[in-house]
Amino acid sequence: MKLLSSFLFLFLSVVVLGSCTHKEKQIPRDIASLQASGGMEGIWFLQGTSSTRGPYNGELELRKSNDGTFNVVRVVTYINYFFDGLRVQEVWTGKAVASANTLTISYDIKQADFITKLGTLKRDPSEFRAPVTVLSRFVTSPAGLSTKFSDKKESEYSEWITTRRNLEARPLWVNERKNLDAKGKSIPVAVRGVIKLFKMDIGYDKDPLVKSYKNRLEFKDEHPYVVFDPTDFEFYRNNKDIIRVTNKITDDISITEAVVKRNAYSPTLPDKAQGYDKNAKDFHINEAGMVSHAVLDEQGRFVSYSPDGDSALWTGMYVASQAMRYLNTKESEALQNVRKSLKGLMTLMEITGDNKEFARTLAIYNPQNPVPQKWHRGTGKFANLIWLEGGNNDMVKGITHGFLWASLVIPTSDTEIWNELREKSRRLPDLRIMSEKPQNMPAALGLATLFTGDASYKERYLKSFNKLKVKVGLNFDTTFYWHGSADWSGINLSMVGDVTDIMVADMLKETELRDKMRERLMDAWVTYQPARRHLLTIAAYGFAYRHGTRGGDFRKESSEVRFSEALRESIWGLREIPYPRPNLDVNIDHSLRPEWCMSPIPRLFWKSLKKPEPPVSYFYQGLYSYPVFELSAFSSGFLWKDSAFAYTESHNRGVEQAGVDYLYAYWLARYSGVRDVQ
């Protein structure tokens, strides 16, 4: 309907103008003319001036369509206007109608896309609802065909076209954005009944905002989508000094949106890894070796470390990333990084003074500041540190993962580290979390076996698989994905645990256990593949698929072709991550997009059992999963754990995330031999 109304508006404009024009004038044939031989079709050289950004030049493509109009692509680059040292290019697409005296072009341009606030700049919600129709009418002039028009918000334009060249096989710009099906298999009747009970408890279906979407087709069908947008990837790889703003009014907010996409697609994957590796080492691994946030000043200069409460997990994954980096490159810096952060992981187990407890993270003690709540000052040799209580199931997986990967690269001649690793591995099975969450015990006992060579640990390792929770996890698929609803953080956590368990079993030559664990990893991939969890795809390839494992779920519900597609898509998952990460005062809300839709299934619906019960808004999630450069890149500390169908984010300028999510995925892909990573 929008396209039809725009076309009628364009047609009426031409008719009205045509009825008011005078008899045509003859003009020289060395400049653009509506009577030029061959007609208007072609690519015209365009020049102009914007009232806000100054002069520009570019091209205007007119390509005949089946309805008698022209499809238009307008591409202009500003000559003297730069944003953060980069040139700015504007791309608009539209429709054109040519008469004897005028060429009338209609563009539908977005007033707002997904950023609602940037610093002191704000978008009004009404700006997201409909595009602005920009009308440009070219008429004959001494300079060629010229026009003056306004985008009705930001700029006045004056431009003209002169010489023409032939069309290329492909238009100057093509929108390649598309929605990929992410629905997955049908929800069993019993599960649907459980979801219904939770929805009633939450009051989800009665919520006014949820109800406002009930007539949307995707809502009725419970049909989620992953938004995939490779548009301009090749352009950015070949034009690293340009920001391209497409079909939007060009202002600081729309340029910023384009900058983040440019920072995702312009650098190569190795370039981004090099950047993140250096940035993590310089600004995100604190004095104790733990992954931390970086506090930056207005000029982006480092001020201080800020603790990350989940650092035990992220530090373990960082150690793994640097071990994989070392195994791929033999760079001494990677080995140094492993040593420093491994020391931090080992300190987590010692600083509490209780053999059954371990810390979540560490920071330097500052006597000028009070020790925060839930933090404690270390004693003895750790008096210069403070530690955060609450080591749990999630954090211990980081410790075991880090210990394992470090053991693959730390030379046996490094006796000090190896002696401490052996001592800590003996203590791992005694941690309280091992009895509370026995699924962690096999990894703990397996590491103790590998590090100490004590056969009694091997015997205990094998017996640990008789525990009910461990046996159920090993022999039954406990994963779930119901039309966009899943335990997203748990997916990442389970993947880390699975990789550790597979590697330990393999190193202990327990091939039957190893193969069962590989099947478990493949089953998880089959469950979540509709949602395109790219890190899980890379891990499944590296530790199961490439070793020949498929699993029963794979054979019933997937195929070799689908896995190959998913592996190629995982490379795009890495490409979507920008470097550097944006460090902005920013709010994002995709629900203001006209095409966005609420999910009929609440997010993490089982959390309604928490007391006090969260508000209804806690359970909101969308049916569209957006590219990293349009959402999670702005604020996520580890994007692989984030909800796939989130739609809002906010971030305060001055706090930078570490980028371990990119480093772990990239070096895992390299270690696993994924093609096209380099």
From TrEMBL:
It comes from Bdellovibrio bacteriovorus. Keywords: Signal. This is Lipoprotein. Residues 1-18 form the signal peptide.
